[in-house]
Amino acid sequence: MTNQNDKGTGTAGGTTRIxxxxxxxLVVLVGASGSGKSTFARKHFKPTEIxxxxxxxxxxxxxxxDQSASKDAFDVLHYIAGxxxxxxxxxxVDATSVQQESRKQLIQLARQYDVLxxxxxxxxxxxVCAERxxxxxxxxxxxxxxxxxxxxxxxxxxRHLERDGFRKVHILRGVEQVESAQVVRERRFNDxxxxxxxxxxxxxxxxxxxELETLLGxxxxxxxxxxxxxxxxxxxxxxxxGPDTPGVLRRVxxxxxxxxxxxxxxxxxxxxxxxxxxxxVQHTHGLAETIAQLEGESKEFRQQVAEFIDGLVxxxxxxxxxLVVSHAGLPEKYHGRTSGRVRSHALYGxxxxxxxxxGLPVRYPWAEDYRxxxxxxxxxxxxxxxxxx
Length: 389
Known about the structure:
CATH superfamily of the largest domain: Metallo-dependent phosphatases
CATH architecture of the largest domain: 4-Layer Sandwich
Structural class: alpha/beta
Number of domains: 2
Oligomer: single chain
Number of helices: 14
C-alpha cells in the first residue's frame, strides 16, 4: 500500500522514489529500532524540524535509552510538536511509532492544529536492524526480541495506516528504497500567496447565468477572460434557486480551467456534489430546481460537474497572505490550514442555533472580533450592501 502520489525516476542504481510531503504537515516516521529513521530524517529535513523521542528522553532523564522516562519524553515531544504546528511549521516525529496507540496520539495532534498527518514507513529487514543496533554502543545490548516485536507490529499496521487517519502514506520496502528515496515538498492547495491579482471577487450567483454574464461584461471580461489579466474569484453558491445553474457552471468551469478564475465551494455545491455522487440529500433550498435543470444535460456534463465540485478547495490564501477568500468566512487560526473542521467553517460558518425574521440561521458574528493580518472576503449570508468590518 504505497501512496498513489509516489513517483519513480530511473537512476543508475535503480528507481528513486519521490515522496510528496505537504509543506505544513505532521510527518510521522514509522519503523523498528535500527531501521534508519534518524538517518533518513537528517537527510531530508532540517534539524529544527525533527523531534526525536530519544532526544526527549535525554532531556527528561539524561539518558536517551531510559525507557522508564518514555511517558514524560513523549509529553515533551507532543508539547514541542504542538507549538511548532501552532506556528505553522512542518514537524517531523522521529520515533518507532509502530504501535497504533502512539500513532493515534500524533494523528489527534495533527487534527488539533488542522494540519495533514503523513506517514513515512521504513520497512527494513530484521537482520539489518539488528546489525545496525549491534554497531551502536547505546543499542548493542538491545534484545533481538524487541526488534522482532517492532517488525511484527509494523507489518500488522501497514494495511490500516490510511484508515487510522493518515492522509498520505509512503512505504519504503528495504534498504535500497530507503536510501534512494527523495522527499519533495508540495505547496498546500489553498496556498496561492504567489498570486497578487488584481482580483474581482464575485459572490453567490445561485443559478443566475444572465446576471453573471452582465456582471462579467461590466467588469471588462470578454468570453470569460480579462484583457488586462484580472482574475475572477467566485466565492461559492454558484448553484440552486436560479433559472440556469448549468449555464453558470459552464461559465465558471471554463474560466477556472483556463486560469481566468478561481472558485471556492459553497454549501450548495457541497450538497449538489453529494447528490451527484448518489448520496441521499434533501431536495430543498433550490436543489430540486438544479436537479431538474441538470437532468436535461448529458451524463458527461453531470460527471464534469461532479469532478469540478470534488476538486474545489475550501479557501484560498492570496496576495502574499494579505487576502483570504472563502464562502462563509474564516478566522485567522484556520487560514492556510487543512482539515474537516476548516472546511466546515469555510462552507457554513458558525451559527447560534437561532433564526432571523427571514427564517435564515443567525450567524455567529466572528468577523466583528476579527483582527487578523489578511482581509477575509466571503459571501453566504445575504446582506443589503457589502460592508467592511
